[in-house]
Amino acid sequence: MLSLHGVNQFYGQSHTLWDLDIQIPAGRCTCVMGRNGVGKTTLMQCIMGLLPLKSGAMHYQGQDLARLAAERRAALGIGFVPQGRQIFPLLTVEENLRIGLPARPDRARQVPGFIDDLFPVLKQMLKRRGGDLSGGQQQQLAIGRALAIDPKLLILDEPTEGIQPNIVQEIGDIIRRLVDELDLTVILVEQKLPFARRVADRFVILDRGRLVAKGEMDELGDDLVKQYLTV
Fold this sequence. Notes:
By secondary structure, the chain is α/β, with parallel strands linked by helices.
């Protein structure tokens, strides 16, 4: 579904992504892993067009992503939940959910009903301001907002960061439902190893901006964990 070839990125003189070749298969959850500062969020921002590629190619369902403006990627069916959630705190829950609807190819103006099924707590809080929600509720709102555009690919950058354990469990269950029941493709950036093992089908490990390992999640051995994931 998504392929990256020879992707490079810089911050000033610092080379942050090095010749990345990554394939994201359709209908599965791929977890991008690695310690802090290895380039995971930078990679997600490149996929979304928030950072331009220095070099390399990126294709989504055969279409050249690298030449598309960031605002056009949502219309292709790419949903993004950034690190830190970044909901609109002064808008209501309903307004947050509806804000991306103009990007839908079908021009629908109603939030899909399945979002109520996934996040029943949001249905009870539609008129409440986003900033008044708890951290876990805001994370659910951020995911619901991304799903409202009816994406085929959903990118989740650290969705469990700062979230209470019971909500972490719910988010994991929701990700699996999205993949197993709705055939959604998910890219998950995650550092919590037990969560990643429970939720993801595949893994990609970055170290200092380089791809150092990839494979099926059940192939992620203790040697890789100790070398690249353990702080």
